[in-house]
């Protein structure tokens, strides 16, 4: 795709700033020169600069690169392993990547990423063979997880589909922190919904996908965008295993799920949302309450509480932000959670600092621009449950059979009486 060159852009801005006639190595028929002259010769010309920028960019109708995503993959020596996977496992994916009439985004892993993926899986498959009789390792440990994603054709096909996004061009500059990217991969464990990728975008500019893979290159094509990543995006774990791999945060919630007898629901349920309290959240209940809930006498109350944290539907943050107020039916006697999303207030200094850190384009953005990603970033919203009983501290932990919303406090339904209502 042909864009306004840096030389032309900088010269244009210099001419406007000094109100000097442009002296450029372009013909007088060049559309940018024509716009510049009309602007400079107009005595009524005034700022803002963004209006001029719109005229300049709008005067150039972009010419799409003739290469398709398939062409870009084929010519990039870093992506030969990805190209081979597409060829062997794609089942028509290769044809789609060459389709000029369908926009799409492809996350293509490098040869080094694929080599590391194969090495890790070969090693863990060998470990699984040695520990085949160990039920815990097969179902809860890293070994079991790796074996589920073994290198058979079906699993690699699913892995490939998790790297593809249909009918959407995801330009790197427009990707925002907390964004959920819907992939081609559909899962029965999500009731046929497409699995998602969660974006982590840092102020330094790094963009990570599921905290696994970093985007290291962007290549526009006629039929979409090719984004090169430095790791293979492995398909997500189930909810239980996701909790188990971060024991310092969720061991109490995991124990509570087992003590309450809800582990089968969490393991086998489809399209489940778990509002997961952290270990700190459980600590805030205080010793007396914890002693009661995790004793035999408190098992019924614990089951009520944990059922109150489970919903038989997918509750993602974009819905909460868009609708502002949502009621979610839980597994505890159909009792509902009231969830409200409120835009987080920023001071003038914070707003200015953020606009500077986001670059000069953000500084020039018009107020109320509907394309402003800050309105969609979960970090800019306070998501509260039951009028402040808890807040969502981390949104959209992606799982193979649902989603995790990490919350600040344990939710207590109105039919549970704890020994110490105030906690510690």
Give a short summary of the structure:
With 424 residues, this protein is α+β, with helices and mostly antiparallel strands.
How would you sum up this structure, described in words?
The protein is elongated. The chain is built from 19 helices and 14 strands. It has helices at residues 6-18, 31-41, 49-59, 69-75, 80-89, 93-97, 111-130, 135-139, 142-148, 153-161, 239-244, 247-259, 263-268, 279-283, 287-293, 299-307, 317-323, 348-357, 360-364; strands at residues 104-109, 164-166, 180-186, 194-201, 207-209, 213-221, 224-229, 272-277, 310-311, 325-329, 336-343, 381-385, 390-399, 402-407. By secondary structure, it is an alpha+beta fold. Strands 2-1-7-6-5-4-3 form a seven-stranded mixed sheet, sandwiched between helices. A seven-stranded mixed sheet has the order 9-8-14-13-12-11-10, with helices on both faces. 39% of the residues lie in helices and 20% in strands. α2 packs antiparallel against α3 (49-59) and α12 packs across α16.
